[in-house]
Amino acid sequence: MSGSLRPRPRDARASARAVAAALACALALAAAPSASFGQSPATASRAMPDGEADARKREALSQEEGIAVPKRSRVASLANAQKIEAQAVAQYGQLLRQASSQGALAPPDYPPRRRLEQIAERLVPHSRRFSERSDGWRWEVNLLGSKQVNAFVMPGGKIAFFTGIIDRLRLTDDEIAMIMGHEMAHALLEHGREREGQARLAQIATVGASVFSQILGYGDLGGQLASGASQLTLLRFSRGDEAEADLVGMDIAARAGYDPRAAIKLWQKMSALGGGQGQPPQFLSTHPAHATRIDTIRAALPKVMPLYARARGLAPDAIQPYASNWGDPVK
User: Fold this and answer.
1) b vs e for 37-74, b when ≥16 Cβ sit within 10 Å of the residue's Cβ?
2) CA distances from 313 to 7, 308, 309, 310 (A)
3) Pairing between β-strand 140-144 and β-strand 158-162 as defined by DSSP bridges
4) Is the sign of the CA dihedral 140, 146, 152, 156 positive or negative?
């Protein structure tokens, strides 16, 4: 056969440019914030009676306080929200069935479970500020008997706490609210959906870099490098998700009347539980280091303490230091 499957130099350059353009578009999609939809408050107010418009303005001003609503990356649009939520609900149901079969699912009238439900009932009304999708969620709280120090909230509003995190940390209601608010924030901000979108984007980048390298005669070196870079990118996003969830969770809990300074005490307890040992270096971890986390939380207190004061009907200067059941009070 006289023909050859190897591209000519000009064809190779054209193919390389096409792959590079595709990668650039994919990366631009990841970086671009999502567009916002709907009427602006000013536009909406013109169509309302004066009294209702004034109430909307006061509500808008209230919503501007506290932690700013994070901008979303369009990369989340690469994953289907309804599908993720449906999968989460199915997995949650499976988890509950397994726990029930092992006698590890707390019954509805069990006081520690009711305690969690009462805290959730106060937090949930403040979730809409960070996600209108949550209006359609069927929120649910369950307590699982396990020594694990863990809790989570799945997309769709499915909350689970393990007895280990409550008992081993001797959590107060305020500290439970900080954990619950943090985990709710992950669901409300669709971090799981964004992570899936990032994974798909990383796959696109890996394939594109592999093709690009093979065109230029470097084998699959480009794909290997892109794969490693993608993993580090996903870790960086995950650390950002954790810090974002800390702040949004504090905002939600403060609006519900829980002391945001409990988040500082929570992570002090968490650090003490680990004995200060065993945490990987921050640049390789998917979670911020405890000290960094506490510093970030403390820096955000001026934004959320007024929300807490208003929820409690107190003047800001009348708020006493937060006293937990361990260590010194937090001012």
Assistant:
1) eeeeeeeebeeeeeeebeeeeeeeeeeeebbebbebbb
2) 74, 8, 6, 5
3) parallel
4) negative
- CB-based contacts of 110: which residues, under 8 Å, 6+ apart? 143
pTM score of the predicted model? 0.72
Q: What is the tens place of the pLDDT at every residue in 277-292?
A: 545 555 455 667 888 9
pLDDT at 83: 86
What is the C-alpha separation between 263 and 250, in angstroms, rounded? 7
Other CB atoms within 10 Å distance of the CB of residue 229:
14
The answer to whether the CB of 73 falls within 8 A of the CB of 33 is yes
Q: What is the pLDDT of residues 190-240, one digit of tens each?
A: 876 666 545 544 454 444 434 444 444 444 444 444 444 344 344 443 678
β-bridge pairing 151-154 and 140-144: unpaired
Instruction: Give the sign of the dihedral formed by CA 66, CA 67, CA 72, CA 76.
Output: negative
CA-based R_g, the chain, Å = 24
Q: Which helix (H) or strand (E) covers residue 258, if one does?
A: none
Which residue shows structure tokens 């567009």?
A: 35
- Rounded to whole angstroms, how far apart are CA atoms 171 and 163? 11
Hey, what are 87's tokens? 């999968």
C-alpha pair distances (Å), 246 with each of 27, 118, 304: 27, 21, 12
Q: Is the dihedral of CA 34, 39, 43, 49 positive or negative?
A: negative
CB 195, CB 234: distance < 8 Å = yes
Q: How far is CA 165 from CA 161, 267, 297, in A?
A: 7, 12, 20
**In sequence order, which residues have a C-beta less than 8 Å from that of residue 324 and are 6 or more positions away?**
172, 174, 175, 262, 265, 269, 330
Helix (H) or strand (E) holding 74: none
Rounded CA separation 241/257 (Å): 24
Under 8 Å between Cβ of 28 and 204: no
* Residue 160: strand pairing partners: 142, 152
